[in-house]
Amino acid sequence: MEVGEEFGPWLSRQLKFAGKTQAELADELGLTRAAVSAWITKRSVPRPTVMGEIAKALGTDLGTVHTRTTDTQVGLPVTWYHRPGYQDGGRDGGNAAAFAFDADVQVLARETCQNSLDERIVENGRPVRVRYTIHELTGEKLDAFRAAVLWDELQPHYSAVSESAAHQKVGRVVDAGVRDMFEKSRLILLRIDDYNASGLTGDDYEDGKFAAVVRRQLESLKSGRGAGGSYGLGKATLWATSALGMVLINSTLSVPHEGRTERRVIGRLELPWRSVDGTPYAGPAWLGRPDPETAGAEVVRSWWADEETIQRLHLTRDSEEPGTSFLIVGAHDVASLEQGKPDSADDENGSDDGTRDISAMHRRLVDALSRDFWAAMTGGGSKLPLLETSVRTLRNGEVVIEEEKVDPTDKQPSRTRALRAFYEGTTVDRLTEAGQVALRTVPLRLPLSGRPGTLGTHQGVLLVTEAEDDDGVHNQVHSLRGNRMTIKKSSVSGLPLGVNPFQAVLLVGRAAGESAPFAEEAEEFLRAAEPPEHDRWGQTEELTLRWSHSAHNRIARLTTEVNAAVKELVVRPKSSGSQESAKLRKKLTVPRKGTAPNKRASGPGLPELDGLDAEIGAGGEWRITAEVKLPRAEELPAMTPVVLLDVRSGSRPRLDWAELVAVEGCEVEGGVLRFTPRARRAVFRGSTDATGHPVRTELTRLVLELRAGTGE
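Below the sequence we write its predicted structure tokens.
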């Protein structure tokens, strides 16, 4: 059972809520004012027989007075407090911090999961558990929720925002969210629950995690030096994902506040400046219990809610384990439209535009979690995972998609294998067999703060293993530090043709191991080199101010070292006896400019074959790897690779492809190459159909052409 607050402070607050003085309570109880004062100042406590009279005077039950784990429900009711307009006439068109991120559930997953990792309780060694619940409300369930959030109080404010929506970006989003809720009679709730986390501890107004999240902007109070966030911007993604600008919060604290830990509740609303009945309001509003300590008891503070209220607000947590639940009201996913045509029907028919497709939200959340946090969810040897995540989807309380626990091995099999081998001590020096993981150390030379010189060299850990089809893009390096979130994804430049597909992982800072030299200093240095999105390392203002304007060059040198180490591991050394390969290359040619057939693509602005490699397979097929040089152009035409037999006279017989696959910078659709926008090179591989060869492969010479369009 939860430990209640001390009687004196609890009683003092209840008297303020009820609008009673100590003298008035003493009169009702038939006691002296000195007796009540002694309770308030903790010099004594009332006798059990008096507890019942106190409960009656406060309008509550005896159990509430005995346990003191919640406030009485008399006096000042829960309500919305709207910040008054600025006295100097200034206006805000919304919270600028929200514009740092898109309305994208994948960005939301990255930022919120990072925050939960940063607040993990490390003493027990267990991972932080984060669950995402998508819940669509319709009909009576929607009506009940609107009543719970006191919609009637908010309606005039939303109406005022809608009236001026044409002049405000935030206003247009909010107006569309309100119209969607009423016209389609549906509302999407997206709740993020974390467990085994610190919770929103601290006072409502003073320095602490609660005030940093709920009251302030651009303030980051993280629990550890290895934290992922540092700007205090990540929390803005919660409000950016709400079309109504509303987020409700229920926190179970790891450290008691006012003698309690469970069901600390507050709501925050982010709206632009508005005028309601002639009264100007600055923007934000809070849902809470009026604070008697503030002037006129207008400002609201968090309150300790009962179970019924928590349930009505859809904020019920599964256990007493510390952590926080954030409920995004009116969730939408505008960025999902960039992924292509939504699953739902065309908007022209009056149906959904895809931004509130709960099935698509579910898939995109799972994809984002497995892409960005695969390392945090991977353990091995004595190393436990830092994170567990899951996603579930409901409609009016009924399951639409069962809870799906994110398994990093599903979409990151090679990288998880590499990290597990590092934890289990099974890495090798060089890749000689399938499934092996090679390890190299790479130096990061850390600068001195504020003056020239080197503090020391941190040895990062580079892991390389063969790629699998489920990995996505091959030949990439994923870089991460202490909290094991993927920070940087980069390709290795200058790889020769014919390199077997691989995946690489770079561990720096604490991720390289607690015993790695200068791990803490590397953690601090790289954290300062990250922008608010925490998706790369490079020049930042903080890096310049704390170290120097050239400090980012240390990171560039690290990248050079990583690329060199990767090449050393994956590129097969050329042997002096490779005469057979030379003979094969002589048999494979690329038509040069001026000698090309009429159908071959030529001229400026078109892709050109730039390099070839080939071998004869065990089945007698030609196996070809080709590199294409791409011009600088926003749009490139589709091209078809055509393989022909080179003959002395007559037309060249065309061979069929048995297999044609993209390696880098392109996609293959029906035998046609479609190139990635803004890529400078592309690589593809193919195998000919040996059953269609008119003569033995060893006796043939080939010509590879790149033709525009379908190549017919």
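The radius of gyration is 32 Å.
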